[in-house]
TrEMBL record:
It comes from Nonomuraea roseoviolacea subsp. carminata. The keyword Transmembrane helix applies. Keywords: Membrane, Transmembrane, Transmembrane helix. This is ABC-type multidrug transport system fused ATPase/permease subunit. Residues 33-313 form the ABC transmembrane type-1 domain. It comes from the Bacteria.
Amino acid sequence: MRSLPQADPGMPDVRGPLRYLWWNARRQLPSLLGGIGFATVWWLVQALVPAVIGKGVDAVTAEDARALVLWSLALLGLGLVQAYTGIMRHRLAVYNWLAAAYRTVQVTARQAARLGATLPKRLSTGEVVSVGNSDIAHIGNSMDILLRGTGSVVAIVTVTVILISTSLPLGLMVLVGVPLMAVAVGPLLRPLHRRQKAQRDLTGELSTRAADIVAGLRVLRGIGGERVFADRYREESQRVRHAGVSVAGVESLLEGAQILLPGVLIAAVTGVGASFAIGGQISTGQLVAFYGYAVFLIGPMRTLTEAADKLTKGHVAARRVVRILAMEPEVSGGTGTSGGGVLRDTFSGVTLQPGTLTAVAAAAPEDAIAIADRLGRYTAGDVTFGAADLAELPIEEVRSRILVADNGARLFTGRLRDELDVRGEASDDEVRAALRAACAEDIVEALPDGLEARVAEGGREFSGGQQQRLRLARALVADPEVLILVEPTSAVDAHSEARIADRLTGARAGRTTLVCTTSPLVLDRTDHVIYVEDGRVLAEGTHRELLESSPAYAATVTRGED
């Protein structure tokens, strides 16, 4: 099997699900056309088999041994061609399925990386997960069915022509009967489409609920809310089940129509053909051929109804994918450059001097988060970096030079060392220095394999404080030009917090660092403290100076205590 094609550099036309499916088809046009060719020949060979068998029966009736041998050899040849084309058709069908499905994964993953922080604000986790769970299968199926569906149309036309040339009444029965069956199935497609969409929406919501419960299971058990959320999950899962049963009801009618309608046509063609054979209008071999054609037509016609079902599901799935691809990031970059220097948020007045350890203490935590997001270019704002506007710099450059590390960052599955050194450029000494600065050496020492240990999904084997220290170590290993830490010690004990505050100064010496916190232990060890109230700078100075000069600051960091 050939290797799967890489995702194209350009984004697909996302004006609609049909355009997305067409874009996918164009990306794999050679293999798609090749598969259609093999599928067409495969069906045509099968369509010719009844005719050859009929000729063989006539040869037996006429006691013509030479003709019987010739038609037997022809049947053998058709069997060999059918075997070869069937293998190639299936091979290319699988290839096209995989190509369409995993191209969808590639473009969706690229778009997710492009959207960054915008994606979780617009879509739930379950909605995104469902693309990889089910939507890619439906999109792959829609490409797969094009092969057999196109070939089945050609086969039906061929059989109809053969029947008309042999017996006009029988040919007209097939010619009229097939479109009638397609019309009869049509009314089932719209409710099927609607119910599949409803089931898909409910499945996405259920996936989101499951992700929330798994992520917060420890907290739920602590507050006794495990049973409450389990009951909610059970209720939602039952709604998904009922939606699935509703879809299955329409699909069962569709499946039944695939058997009933062709069966009626076969019975009619066979009955009329038998009467013609008795009347001497057709030979015995032609009657056998007509019956063979009638039975053969079940396959192509079932394929057509299957195509209608899979294309409908593919359309629903493509709509979900298009919804993601149509999104635009909340912020975009330019083509400018910056030599670095002072980083300033004009709206709040927060200014970070190069090479200093600065702290922002906000009366409302959300104000500090908003400032960090603007300084890191995660939300739009009037921010300057040296002499340049931050909005004029390419997003890639901003991300490489300014790192915002908050408690929403995740630990991923894999080797712990790779988790800490995500770029793979740090030495062992640098990793150990970052672990020491984050007061996380004891975490690694307690693991049997140390830095070679495997981290479980979301780092669930670590406590909240341990996860926070490991995230801090990861940020320090990255060693960005500007590091913005949002409440980096909120989940650790006071002793560890004091040590982290002491070591952070040395670890970030000569680098610009901002810590958003209201912890007196951390604030007392920074070079400069900025107090923010209602989103604006209210006071500046050292921690001890502000305790004396700003009652609002003192009340915030001491929480009203003396």
